[in-house]
User: Fold this.
Amino acid sequence: MIACLLIPGFELRAVLAGREEFLNRPLALEPLPGSDNVIGPVTAKAAEAGVRLGMRLGEALSVCPRLCLLEPDPARIEAEWEHLLRRLEDVGIAVEPEEPGCLYFETRHVERLYRGLEQVLERAIIAVGPFWEPRLGAAARRFAALAAAGVARSGQALIVPECETEEFLAPLPIELLPMPAPERERLHELGVRTIGQLT
Assistant:
């Protein structure tokens, strides 16, 4: 099976590593230069107030006047990501990093070591640690593993048996598909909302 490990808002968590108490405040990463003035990842408190990743800065501040902005720290993000990858490799997992906050790995090679798929996924979650609130998905195909990780709860793994892949993917939103935003908008105009409708 292929496993996908997702850490939503990794960049923000990396900046806050060691300062966990700040996660309980309405925070967001400030816009990157050339990003059309849209904010980065947000904390749960900011999300509760209606602030979303990709929202324009002015709109975010009008929705949540108490929103605090943090400066992105690319060096810190990279260092935290490398540290996290090493922790997984230390428990025998050969990772394929996609981008900070998203990686894949084959479970077959370590299933014998940990005596089963569930144990491998549990070991990966423990290795990452609770601060990062990782989500894991496992499936026969890469995209299904990514989709499973996308809907898994924080700190949990979701396994999709191969025979149930189509049934699992069908009700999921097309936002999970890697496609340009204009194409997705055209599909929405045609009434296509789910992967099942698209197929």
